[in-house]
Amino acid sequence: MPVGACSLSWTDIRPTSDFIREIQELKDNSESLTPHLIVVPNRLPPQQRNLNYLAKALTDMDVVIAPGLSELSVIKHQSERFSGLGGTYGTRFFDEFERFGQFICDYVLTGKLDQIYSDSNVVPLWG
Questions:
Q1: pLDDT for position 27
Q2: φ, ψ dihedrals at 36, nearest 5°
Q3: Which contiguous run of DSSP H or E holds residue 73?
Q4: How far are the Cα atoms of 2, 23, 34, 76, 86 from residue 28, in angstroms, in the given order?
Q5: pLDDT tens digit string along 22-50?
Q6: Is residue 127 situated within a structural domain?
Q7: Which domain holds residue 20?
């Protein structure tokens, strides 16, 4: 199951949508439900919460947009003792990573995403 990381800059969205179109063509030709494509918006500025631009660019593609992750470099510059994910405990960054992990557990590891794909061609935007 490919997972692509994508910020919301058009310079990132364009190659991501082009790549997904290529994978989609391969899936369509093979008539397979897999691989499931998951795009993870990352490096999101703190005020960026609207994923509609990304969703519009991926319209008519068999893709799931997972919960986004903020630009982590902000916290690296705010704390000289930054030590990876543990250094984000108690911040929105930690909450976002926890939410993303919960998405993976709830939909990928349990097979729920497989069920959604087999039931419908419409895959929702999580967020």
A1: 82
A2: -80, 135
A3: helix 73-78
A4: 16, 9, 10, 42, 41
A5: 988 888 888 777 777 888 888 777 666 67
A6: no
A7: 3-119
